[in-house]
Amino acid sequence: MKIIVNTVVAVILCLSMTISFCSGVATMTNDDVIKLVRAGMAEALIISAIDGSDPLFDTSADALIKLKAAGVSDAIINKIIIKKLAPAVQSLQTAKDAACRLATSENLQAVIDGDKQINLSYRQADIDEDISAGSTIASFFTLGVAPEKGTVSARISGGSASNRVKSKIPVFPDLATFEGQSTDDVFVLVKLEVKGDDRILIIGESSASLFGGYKGRAKFRDGTKMPLKLEKVQSNCTYKGEVMNIYRGVPSTPLAPGEYALLYGERFFDFGVDP
Questions:
Q1: Distance between CA atoms of 265 and 51, rounded to whole angstroms?
Q2: CA spacing 20 to 30 A to 141: which of 79, 195, 204, 257?
Q3: What is the pLDDT of residues 133-165, one digit of tens each?
Q4: Chain segment 57-103, per-residue pLDDT in tens
């Protein structure tokens, strides 16, 4: 019964897609995906078809927008991008303890924008603390019980980044961690708020009282941390004598136009997403 079902599925796919798919070459294009979506095929089935295809996908900004407008889900679009980049990812995979294959040097961060690579340089952010002046009086009259509260923010000069991308789903091909490090502790994709000639990121909260001392904690403002989908492309490779793991990062959802930065430790690799 399973063989019969698979045969029926294969026939349906052949009727919906290019002739080359049915002839054994198994090529697949953006238009093929749109046909399958409009035919009401299940998302999991379309993703399986993409996995088994020889991709001829177009992942330019305009092509991705066309897919979205045709009702193609983010999960399917993400699979298309992954399949298109598979040859490049495979070239990065090496045996255990081999040298790490990085797209850039340690002071640069690669980002793939459609079919081109941009090398981002990092910026140093100024740290600002904004403590509420009004709560100082309350602290005095309540003997320090009511704390002063405020925010800690990172500020980058300039209202926009010099590096611009058109893809709403840019790819970061070589996010590296040292062995034993958690990815959450090393790199974060964030959206920056433009204020005048600066770009701002709230990175924490601070409080102080007359007797309680100073306290602070890391906390991003809601909506500023962009979820990254990570795929490990190299394990236990070495770079300058250090054992590392290399990941490829892709935003889980398309990025809206605006100013962004990849936080890599304390470095801000800033870029802008154009409409």
A1: 34
A2: 204
A3: 444 444 444 444 445 567 788 999 999 999 999
A4: 998 989 999 999 999 999 999 888 888 887 665 554 444 457 888 88
User: CB of 111 within 8 A of CB of 120?
Assistant: yes
The distance in angstroms from the start CA to the end CA of the chain is 50
What pTM was estimated for this model as a whole?
Answer: 0.58
Q: What is the three-class DSSP state of 65?
A: helix
Quote the CA–CA distance of 53 and 148 in Å, as a whole number: 60
Phi and psi (nearest 5°) for 97? 70, 10
Interacting residues of 153 by C-beta distance below 8 A, sequence separation 6+: 127, 128, 130, 200, 201, 202, 203
Contact present, 114 and 61 (Cβ < 8 Å): yes
Other CB atoms within 10 Å distance of the CB of residue 271: 22
Give the phi and the psi of residue 186 in degrees, each rounded to 5: -115, -50
* b/e 7-42 (16+ beta carbons within 10 angstroms → b): eeeeeebeebbbebbeeeebbbbbebbbbbbeeebe
> What phi and psi values does residue 46 have, to the nearest 5 degrees?
-65, -40
Four-residue CA torsion sign, 124, 170, 227, 239: negative
Q: Single out the residue of 129, 132, 188 nearest to residue 155, CA to CA.
A: 129
Token pair 């603390």 is found at 129
